[in-house]
Amino acid sequence: MDRLFSMLAGGILTGSILGSAAFGQALASQSMVAPSSVTPTSTAPVTSENTDEALDPASLLPDLPALPRTKASLIGGTIQKVDRVRDQLTLQIFGGGKMKIFFDPRSNIVQGSNQASPSDLRPGDRVYVDTILDGSTVFARDIRLATAALSGGKSQGVVVSYRADKAELVVRDLLSPDPIKLRISSGTQIMQDGHITAVSQLVPGTLVNVDFVSQKDVRDARQVSILAIPGTSFTFGGVVTSLDLRVGLLVLTSSSDHKTYEIYLDPASITVDDRLRLGADITAITNFDGSRYVAHNLTINSH
User: Is residue 161 domain-shared with residue 223, that is, in the same domain?
Assistant: First the structure.
């Protein structure tokens, strides 16, 4: 945004100088008129009809040019830094690496089903960004902001490790850049399919929901629910909200729970055609491999 104001500064200054010169010339011409030729001024009150309306400062700014009509690339990651002066964010990309991405009022920012704004972008937030090249810069056309997972004492993630000697469970949260450590006590319930199970079921790669209580620097797990172990099959139905076929990744908003899921396409099992696009209603049969959902069967539903 500061680049836009810099371009306007020269034009506004020039207009101000020319306007001042014209005003001075008008005063000089009025001083040359003889008093006898001056007609009495009306004492009628001035109304809004004969005065200039106040200008909205935003109206002085030209419209931004339309974005290039190029194919967008989907990038997911965690915001590391937001520079609100240069209108750019630094993204820690899932899988490694960093990228600087520019944004401006043309960028569409959403959080869940609600419209969001640049002020909602904060370090540590997990986002999906549809990026395009605007000249030589990487520009955010759409930014989808996830809800913080740790609010309310709940988390969902994948088990990294469980150490019985320390009663410590380490979970890689799906919406947090860093693993979280949880203390397992005799009062912690380990649940699977609605039944209490042994803590030994918490093997690495297991997908879990955790309900915990924070006490200073310690999180005590009240309940750990096992959602999936590596190799479990899941079926998802919903609408494609992001798509990057170069890396074989789509983001689906489920029609049942309205949550967002990353689904990777198995190139050995799925042949992609032109019907797979943004907004497509699909059904995906996936396997959870311990870190992600991989689709081995994909159906595009017709309406």
Answer: yes
Q: What is the pTM of this model?
A: 0.49
DSSP state of 177: S
Output 236 or 78, whichever has higher pLDDT: 236
Domain boundary among 199, 228, 257: 228
For residue 102, pLDDT beyond 80: yes
Q: What's the average model confidence in pLDDT over 243-263?
A: 86
φ/ψ bin of 152: left (φ > 0), alpha (ψ from -120 to 50), beta (otherwise)? left
Q: Is 43 a member of any domain?
A: no
Amino acid letter, 147 = T
Structure token digits, residue 106:
């043309």
Distance separating alpha carbons of residues 2 and 83, to the nearest angstrom: 11
- What average pLDDT score do residues 217-226 get? 87
Q: Is residue 13 part of a domain?
A: no
Say which CATH number the domain at 116 has: 2.40.50.320
CA angle 240–277–77, rounded 5-degree value: 55
What Cα–Cα distance (Å) separates residue 80 from each residue in 83, 98, 122? Answer: 10, 9, 8
| Cα dihedral 195, 198, 200, 206 in deg (nearest 10) | 10
Top-confidence residue, 282 or 290? 282
DSSP designation for 10? H
Under 8 Å CB-to-CB from 120, ≥6 apart: which residues? 109, 111, 145
Number of domains the chain is built from: 3
- In sequence order, what E strands does 180-280 have? 180-183, 189-192, 195-196, 207-215, 218-228, 233-244, 249-254, 260-265
